[in-house]
Amino acid sequence: MLVIKVGGGKELDIDAIVADIVALRQAEQALILVHGGAETTNEVAEALGHPPQFITSESGYESRRTDRRALEIFEMVYCGQINKMWVEKLQQAGVDAVGMSGLDGRIFEGKRKDKLRVRVNGRRLVLRDDWTGTVERVNTDLLRLLLDAGYLPVLTPPGASDSGEAINVDGDRAAAMVAAAFQAEALVILSNVPGLLRNFPDESTLIREIPRTRADDFMQFAAGRMKKKVMGAVEAVAAGVRQVIFADGRVEHPIRRALDGQGTQIG
Amino acid sequence: MLVIKVGGGKELDIDAIVADIVALRQAEQALILVHGGAETTNEVAEALGHPPQFITSESGYESRRTDRRALEIFEMVYCGQINKMWVEKLQQAGVDAVGMSGLDGRIFEGKRKDKLRVRVNGRRLVLRDDWTGTVERVNTDLLRLLLDAGYLPVLTPPGASDSGEAINVDGDRAAAMVAAAFQAEALVILSNVPGLLRNFPDESTLIREIPRTRADDFMQFAAGRMKKKVMGAVEAVAAGVRQVIFADGRVEHPIRRALDGQGTQIG
Fold first, then answer.
1. Closest Cα in chain A to B148
2. Which domains can be identified in chain A, with CATH numbers?
3. How many CB atoms lie within 10 A of CB A94?
4. CA separation (Å) from B24 to A93, B19, B92, B157, B219?
């Protein structure tokens, strides 16, 4: 099993990613696609008069403030606009894609953080009207059912809480959980950088290899949204995924290059 | 098999519909839910600066002008906001719902009208940049796979063209095709009217029964969006669906009432 995670950034070469997926499926490689959509969500939230807000957890991670209206806009973009864009591109290329969120069939299931302890401008706050959580279980039965019937699952946040609420979950960590659940050969995380950079955004400082035993040490080089990607990678290798690759999604043959050794290879 | 179609109108009693679905599933009734979203799509399109436009075909049917941006907004609302709202409500009520569009796995497949002959203010026009079509086939294999595994499919437009493009298809007629494909006992179409009215909007003029052989004659009473609902009903009974019921989705036990003989019963 190969799990491909694509960001929501606009610089990604979507047609190149689709072409690689077609080739991999022709070679009978089992795969699952997981995508994000943060950039477009910010724009749509702005346009709909509910601008994005970000909060910092006490442990220093930044995440989207997800009240009910933000959740609705999140679902519009992730599950509507972007999920169906991927499914349409894949269907047009002859891949029988089925797009679902982590809420559907509880594919990504976990706990809602019903009290979110955060810092806003240095002040401590407890938010109770936030729909955010962490994936703890993956519904591999449903995914296997689809894979065995020849479909390509195209997955996206949100996930489902234990009580069935929609929760905003991190897409990179969700992809890591999927890879772990299937004991995947590789999790390929494509974004608009060539990999993990020692001095972000200087692309000449690409870190080429990270031994699995030392993945934790490299957290120091992860800036901004890269933090959760590295956290997902650390979790994935700890859970038995053979290899996690951060690679460039803006180039020709982005998946093939990643599998051929480009980008940052962890494992 | 029971196919339930719910409109996208805001007056629907969603919790009452969910409660009836829970009861039907407990009674081991096989069912599929299909929903719309036109009203909210109009609002979001307006808010995003791409106001809805409607066109009239040469045969007199009104439909949404669906250029690429309108299609994207359509997908945001139907597949994102409204589909996930239904899935979340159902998951919270203990129903393992899986939301998909007709594009996913080509559940609703048909022809894109690549040249759309329309009248705009009396003038004839041919539109070539419109993504509209009609459902001709239903992927019952994928739906059966999910049903047999205990999931409730929650379906919504768009559909897929033969070449995999997303196409705006009418939700009522798509639901009729699903009911026909499964030779359903009943197709229940819930909206914000008590059924087909002889003098719309006078609710005291409800038509209680339409014999299947005379369904065509009743087209004259269908105003506006009701036209396609009646057309779907005519197609469904012709294709072997035992009964089509137009019923009120704003009341307690809307599905049970419909099955107990309320609304307009065709068949």
1. A145
2. 2-266 (3.40.1160.10)
3. 12
4. 39, 9, 16, 24, 31
pLDDT at B221: 83
Q: What is the pLDDT of residue A224?
A: 72
Nearest by CB to residue A98, choosing from B79, B96, B100, is B100
ipTM value, please give it.
0.96
Contact A84 B83 (CB under 8 A): no
Tens of pLDDT, residues B123-135? 888 888 999 999 9
Q: What is the pTM of this model?
A: 0.96
What residue in B sits closest to A70 (Cα-Cα)? B81
Nearest-neighbour CA in chain A from B98: distance (Å): 4
CB contact under 8 A, A91 and B98: no
Question: Are the beta carbons of A149 and B145 separated by less than 8 Å?
Answer: yes
User: Could you report the per-residue pLDDT of A176-197, keeping only the tens digit for each?
Assistant: 999 999 999 999 999 999 999 9
Cβ of A88 within 8 Å of Cβ of B105? The answer is no
B167 forms beta bridges with B159
Of A83, A105, A146, the CB nearest to B96: A105
For B173, the token pair is 């007629």
d(CA B88, CA A80): 15
From the list B75, B87, B142, which residue is nearest A104 (CB)?
A: B87
**CA-CA distance, B16 to B2, in Å (whole number)?**
17
Q: What is the pLDDT of residue B60?
A: 76
Rounded-to-integer distance, Cα A18 and Cα A93, Å: 7
The CA distance from A100 to B125, in Å, is 38
Say which residue the tokens 């307009």 belong to.
Answer: B264
| A121 or A168, higher pLDDT | A168
Please give the residue of chain A at the shortest CA–CA distance from B72.
A81
Question: With contact defined as beta carbons under 8 Å apart, do A42 and A52 qualify?
Answer: yes
